[in-house]
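Pasting as-is:
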Amino acid sequence: MKSFNVTLAAAAITLTLISSCATDDPNRRAKTGAAVGAIAGGVIGHQVHSKNGRYAGVVVGALTGAAVGNYMDKQQRELEQKLAKERRADQIQVTRIDEETLRLDVKSNASFDIGSAQVNRSFLRSLRTMSEVVGEYDKTAVHIIGHTDSSGDADYNQSLSEKRATAVKRFLGSNGVDKTRMRNSGRGETMPVDTNSTTEGRSRNRRVEVYLKSVVEGRESDAYRSPV
């Protein structure tokens, strides 16, 4: 229904624009072509779905060629600079996965109390800073993925990981990050990065990962596929 409404609105606007060009206007053809092109571009920009990668609900500009790497380089530098305090305290790590992808590892011992899905008040400033940078660089899709250690029941851990990812998404959304750019999910205890047999290992496994995937022209839907 949304796709139909967008197409209908586009058609209506196009007809209005075309009718506004007088028939004796020598530039009528060029104006009409520009109007149709603009509308078509807007409709195409709506084709990435908020859940299945086909429809985003907003027009998102795509990156091309060398612009991709430069865009992500700049975003990485700004995140590293503005989150320098958190990085020194090992609360957030910024990692470049590849030319098109950044990952922010948010340590749960800083962001959440044990067994809680409510963001610690002391960590809100850090997440707000993250929101400012991520919101500025809007040519990326944002994937928020929660993880736990293996302590306790697996179903409980899965639910907790989902709730924590949702909490981070909601906070980012309330601080300027377009919600249509974001995807959130939980992986529970299924993807540890360290052993669960030590306190230190379990602490590393409890985390929220935020992936920033660039939207590249010609394969925009790739940015909305889960990185895990």
